[in-house]
Amino acid sequence: MATPSLVDQSVVDQSFVDQSFVDQSFVDQSSVAPSLLALWHAAWAVAVCATAFVGESLGGLRGEGLAALLIMAMPGVSGVILMLRDSVGLRFALMAAWLMASVAAAGLTGGATGAVPGLLIMPLAAGIALDHPRIGPGIGDGRLTKVGVAALILPLGSGLISALLNGTGAQPPVLAALSGLLALAATAAAIRLTWGERQSRLTAAEANSSRIEAVLNAQPGLTLLLDPAGRAVAAWGTPPPSLSVEALFDQGLIAAVHAPDRPAVGVALQRALAGHPAEILFSPRVALDRRVVMILRRFDHAGGQPQLIAQAFDGTAQFARELGLETARVEAEAQSAGKTRFLANMSHELRTPLNAVIGFADIMRERLFGPLPDRYSGYADSIHQAGGHLLDLINDVLDLSKIEAERYELSLESLDARDPVSAAVALVRVQADEKGVDLAPVLPSTPLMVQADARALKQMALNLLSNALKFTPSGGSVTLTLDGVGPYLELVVSDTGVGIAPEDLQRIGRPFEQAGDADQKARGTGLGLSLVRSLTELHGGRMSLDSTLGEGTAVMIRLPVIPVVPVVDEAQV
Question: Which end of the chain has less neighbouring CB within 10 Å, N or C?
Fold first, then answer.
């Protein structure tokens, strides 16, 4: 969408017509400028020499006139050097040569009253020709033309002095007219050479400017040029719905924004003016159900105060998608929190009947009320084993749910870390012996005092040992190592079991994630390591896992639970 402000050619020239872009389109034409200038100089030298030859042949040319023509031919001959090299300094040197030759010729012939008065205007013609534009500073800006105009005074003065000293005589009119025609032809050629090129460059620049403006007006979004106060200076493209471009010109951006969004828009404008990129989402004042996304950047241009370039797009669809995603996320979190709270609150309701089932099965196994048939005795063993497995699963689920619901509270106390770890080893000792797995605990010989939750520490060791025993075949080994390293308690459980594939290592430790084939997955629930990781993080520690498929697994937990005793400098005691 074009606006009246785009008529201001200075805005277009300063803002969007990069001079280097315009110059680039004329590199080929500018590169031939030295050749054209050299040809102009050579043509002048040939014409002057031909005039001198004709004048001498007709016998109407005196010695002073012949010398003046030959002197004026010398700058033309010198200008042929432009075929080989071209520079600003060389052009000014040629201009100086034209001036000196003109002064000398006027002094010899009497200037305007002499035989060749047309030669007096050659500094002006040379200045126009040498002002032919090219790539480089100092040329093409009219400077040499101005020098040529000012330099006309010198040959006129030289001719006047010569006429006063030597007097004036009758001069051949044909030769005077011929010199005038030569000078006029040279001046016309110089004008065609220089000013015609400038007109072509200006036409091309205007065409480029029109193409750039057409591209900007055809873009799907709205591009704005804003002053520091947020008022539009120029606009291109298609505005978002309900964002009036006319209002941006008349009232400014802040006034077009819904009132609650104005402070954020003002902050974005200030941030962009400070040179930082800024992006803002706001509602137009006239359509509160819509959203506009605007990107702001600082724009600096020569000879003016900093401005802002802004791009505005319709963000209604994007906002609706983000709002839908946020709503879905909130609902999912609410459902997850509800599930977690439900499981955490069902601790008593789930454990009590299950403990009763296990207890009655245990009574039947022990035959406390008399003998049972062998078949029923086997059923009681199965019920007791299945109930114990289910109780372990429920305990893990409930503990994990409490942690997720942030209802699990650590009971920190000062204790010897060997005690809960030794208790965990004792609980799995019978299982290890029955399976034929060598269980080797390596504990420090002296107390290892920590500030931790004894139940959680025992649970972590028990889960790691149980996992290791599940996946270690008969004849293998499981090693538990407990040690203190600085403020950290290190517990490492390693085994010679089946190991874990590299692609499974990243997900192991998340709830219900398991590795291996279906037979291996049937041995566990995928909660053991997840609970260990959660309890470790509650203590401010970290769990790491290293495994090689077919060789074994090592799990290490590091807990910052060892109190640091400050060192007392004996020299200060």
Answer: C
